[in-house]
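Why run this: before we spend reagent on co-expression, it is cheaper to look at a predicted model of the complex and decide which construct boundaries make sense. The entries below are exactly what would go into the expression plan.
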Amino acid sequence: MKEIRLKGLDEKIYYDVCDNGLKIYIWVNEKINTFKGSLVFLGGAENTTFKIEGQEKKVPSGTAHYLEHILCKNADGSSLLGRFNALNSYSNAATYPNRTAYEFVGTKDVLKNLDVLLDAVQEKEFNEEYFEKERGPILEEERMRRDDANRVSYYKINACLFAKYPNRVSGLGTEEDIKKITLDDLKLFYQTFYHPKNSFLVVTGKVNPEEVMAFVKEKEKKKVFLPFVKPVLPKYHEPKEIVSSYDEARVNVEVPNVYISVKVPLKDLPKKNIVTLISIMQVVLASNFGDTSIFKEELLQKKLAVSVGYNVEWERQYLILSAISKTKEPDKVIPLLKEKMKHLDLEEKDIFRKIKSTIANLVLSYEDPEYVNDVLNYMLVTYGKIITNEKELLEKMTMEDILEVMKSVNFEQMNTFVLYPLKKEE
Amino acid sequence: MKYKRYDLGGYQVYTIATDKFKNCYMEINFRQDVKDVSLAKRRLLGKMLAESSLKYPSKREVNIALEELYNLEFSSGVGRIGHNHLTSFSFDFLHPKYVKEKDYLDHVLDFAFETLLKPNIKNGSFDEVTLQVVKEKSHVSLDAYKERPLSFARIDSLAKLYKGEIPSKRAMGTHEEIDEVTAKDLSEEYKKLFAETYTEILVIGNLDMDLLVEKIKNRFTKEAVMVSNIPYMYLPKIAPFKQEIVKSTYNQTQYLVYYQFNNLTKFEKECVVPLFSIMLGNANMTDKLTRYLRIENSLCYYCGFYVNTSDGYGMFYVGLNKENIVKAREMIQKAMQEMIQKDIEEDYFEIQKEKYLADLKIREDGMYSLGDNYYLHETFGFSSFQELREEIPKVTLEDIQNLGKKMQYTYEYILEEREA
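The model came back. Tokens follow.
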């Protein structure tokens, strides 16, 4: 068992690998009662086409999510969650664009929780009857999501920004997709992505790391898996240009929401650690559109906007920088946001105050086992490893670094998206 | 963990000394009978105090000060427990050991009490421009619930079920009430906040609490308020059954069913209701409702049973296709009947009790849930976590059955999806 030390945070992650390739990460907090476990597979909603031993495979959108639902069922069709309930724990599962996670939160018998989780997800027997029965709840979930304004804007904006990336369509699938999904699609996805070598386990909270590590390694030793054939995922040649510079939609919002998004190719930026690049963008946007910006204060005081915010997303070979506002006067606010985005202020005092508060948040974040579990999951999927020097990177950031990075950002590929309220007659 | 209460005449300080958390938390609550509170004014006052002070005359300057204090999180809010209206100010900050400045805790307290005690009032009035910003945000916040179908259904159904009564009112007031408030009104409301309310301060963290309370005393004094006890339960008039169907522009229908009650004992409210609610609609996919609606009949993705003991109602909620309402109604009634007929396996009941005890431990790991429990315990006499651990095992299936019999089916609300 190795120890991964998080520099400057006085925290460590225990790490080991099972013989079958399953990686295990453990973070301990002795002062609390709670623990969380998550088993994560590197296959998610966006993996609808892939090659296995040279053969092209395709499943409908929504397959990963349907499979997640089915894996949460026992052999008799009852819910797997009930087995965790009997251990006095909570459990849940979630499908992300690039991963699917199965998790539990409890206060006693972490080994029994792990036993149920590993067996249920790694050794699945499928059944046609309960596969069909689950289609109804999934269709209702899809209908529910259609009323979610954030979700509508996320996919619409991605469709404006990206021509090739699969993040343009809902990972849940449309009603039509969901109706098309067969049990064979689920089996294919399961056989392809659900292998120990394509997964990791993260356990956080009040646990004994030696005990957990020994238990999982011993348990995994007894399981038999076919050799892992790594699926070949499509390579997307995404052009630098955005697809469209403007789009709008109407949903159940009370006030129009405006999004200004810039597509920034990573290859245009100086060669720096991706964590540094993202941090720089975040602090710069925070000082221009965040709670301490003069620009935001003016928009609010002139009653042009009711809120102003920002976001930074990393999407494969691009960073997306966004300014967001709720406004009753989108026509007046859009040009102001665009202008501001093109002429970002780089005030040293502001930026370093933001860095100081980001460091404070980082120190605080290693406390809650549920949050730490999510952070480790995110790092492992996004960066492929645990980032050990996040605090150091923030502390070492200089104004020169920031100026160098921001000088290389081209703001030409800019999209405007507006979410309007439904028309009254609708 | 060490709990301690300090009675300081004009106000009380409740403290929990614990090394569980890297941050510390302070909440200042002003409590008053809701009938004596102008909802819109009180909420706008809270927001105005959070928006600026004499030292920090704009929201931006407040935010800069918060960042200087290592991202101190500061917010104001309003809420209600039974007849008690609460205006709260919360401060979430790093434990002083993580920062270089030796007097960090003093700076945090200075910020907190300057905000409350030195408001941005000039010539007897709050700042008009700031008030307009706060009003604009309030109007938008007031309507934000319409963006989520279940929130819309819940708020609209409560307004219709309790027409004009306390549970029907939003803590923010109405659009008309917000419009009527002037900057001068708020300076009068500010005086009332201190003159007419009970005040309780809650502090959680790994701090020397005796020393901290001395620091608070040096910054904050208040006259004692002599008013009678404010009931923490609203006792509803049980209405005859009615049904409401409302058209909507949402894609999914929301089906809500209300049961009311007004004569629960302390033991029922604190120990029987949670177990009843878990087994009926909140047991991680093993409850009756999920089993009948989702697993056996594929009618929905989400459903549940929510209980508000201080307002005297329980509410079933389901998001579904409107064609399935008849079946859903049948299944809800079946689930409820089984609770009343004690149709619950003994083993399952025991597991849910243990599960609830485990939930208490999880809640003790959360700073806010830990604080909520202690605040309710000291202020209203709710059971502490320790007392709940002793009482929960005493709940019997007969208690569950009796609770079911006390609940009356009074209201059905359907928020219909848009026409295809």
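The domain at 2-221 of chain A is CATH 3.30.830.10 (Cytochrome Bc1 Complex; Chain A, domain 1). The radius of gyration of chain A is 23 Å. Bring this page to Monday's planning discussion.
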